[in-house]
């Protein structure tokens, strides 16, 4: 099942964001996504993601990153990164909400 869209004028919440209920996740470590057009889906990532490819999609996945900086780090070459139905826990420091995604290019 896909999370339902929140009613117009309301904030996204637990019922409308993250990995859809019932999605089976495959354990994975950190990822280096260097291939243009690469799609990863259905992963339970214990580690962080570095993205260098263009048009990369990460979907229906959970990321638990303990790096002291960004859970998802992008580089200058990155364009059109899509994170769809992804739960991110940037647990590396007390500022995880501020340092979850590092955009350094057009996302």
User: Strand portion, in percent?
Assistant: 35-45%
- Straight-line N-to-C gap: 27 Å
- Helical percent range? under 10%
Secondary-structure element order, N to C: EEEEEEEEE
| Major sheet size, sense and barrel closure | 5 strands, parallel
- Structural class category: mainly beta
- Report the uncertain regions: 95-99
Helix count from the secondary structure assignment: 0
Characterization of this structure:
With 107 residues, this protein is mostly beta strands. Helix content is 0%, strand content 36%. The protein is built from no helices and nine strands. Strands 1, 3, 4, 6 and 8 form a five-stranded parallel β-sheet that branches. The chain starts with 25 loop residues before the first strand and ends in a 5-residue tail after the last strand. About 5% of the residues have low confidence.
Overview in brief:
0% of the residues lie in helices and 36% in strands. It is mostly beta strands. The two termini are 27 Å apart.
What does the secondary structure layout of this molecule look like, with pairings?
Layout: E1 26-28, E2 31-33, E3 39-41, E4 43-46, E5 49-51, E6 57-65, E7 72-74, E8 82-90, E9 101-102
Parallel strand pairs: 1-4, 2-5, 3-6, 4-6, 5-7, 6-8, 7-9
List keywords for this structure.
107 residues; mainly beta; five-stranded parallel sheet; four-stranded parallel sheet; 9 strands; 36% strand
